[in-house]
Design brief:
This protein is α/β, with parallel strands linked by helices. It folds into two domains: about 130 residues, Rossmann fold (3-Layer(aba) Sandwich); about 45 residues, no CATH class. Helix content is about 45%, strand content about 15%. The chain is built from seven helices and seven strands; from the N terminus they run E-H-E-H-E-H-E-H-E-H-E-E-H-H. The protein has a five-stranded parallel beta sheet, sandwiched between helices. A two-stranded antiparallel sheet has the order 6-7. Helix 1 links the parallel strand 1 and strand 2. Helix 2 runs parallel beside helix 3.
Length: about 190
């Protein structure tokens, strides 16, 4: 899983020289932002698979970057870094959609493990989202599973007519397409 775009946000340039280089050696495309404001501008102009941001920055904090990243693109994953971790801060970060929370200093193997885990989670969410966009139709009776108001896969199976009436307010009439009509006429003795 290399080649993903990572935005590294920290007002300490040493982070870019260490974590940034480490992530580059793993095959990731790493972009840098030296402030939360700069990070938000980067997020508005391009997609990033993962944002790794320091929690404590002047003006635009890591939580602000998290909120903006999720507002701009909910699929963007965010990991918060901090040297001053606390349980309430970690809980708040996770409530707002952070994928992970890592204390400074960290071991680079731990960073790699967590980044791989987050990106794998993103890949799985993308795959699930793709499959949720299919309309399940029975190959035998042609009924449709209507998952509206339920968890995916738990909806009731309804006829095409009932589904079209509910979703589009349309009544369905049965008729022949020209090809089927011609075939049926040939079958009449």
């Amino acid at each position: 899983m290399a080649g993903e775009k990572i935005l590294l946000v920290d007002d300490d340039e040493i982070i870019f020289e260490t974590a940034g280089q480490d992530l580059l050696t793993q095959g990731y495309h790493v972009y840098a932002a030296l402030s939360g404001e700069e990070a938000v501008k980067e997020l508005e102009t391009g997609f990033f698979n993962l944002v790794i941001t320091d929690l404590n920055m002047k003006e635009t904090t890591g939580l602000d970057v998290l909120r903006e990243a999720k507002r701009i693109n909910p699929a963007t994953m965010v990991m918060l870094l901090t040297a001053y971790g606390s349980l309430p801060t970690a809980v708040e970060a996770l409530r707002q959609g952070a994928s992970d929370y890592l204390l400074k200093p960290w071991q680079k193997e731990e960073m790699f493990f967590r980044v791989r885990g987050i990106l794998k989670m993103q890949e799985m969410k993308n795959r699930l989202s793709h499959y949720e966009n299919f309309l399940p139709v029975c190959c035998v009776c042609h009924n449709i599973r209507d998952d509206e108001g339920t968890l995916p896969g738990e909806g009731d199976w309804v006829s095409l007519e009932a589904f079209m009436k509910k979703k589009g307010g349309m009544d369905v009439t049965h008729t022949f397409c020209p090809e089927c009509y011609a075939n049926e006429i040939k079958r009449i003795p």
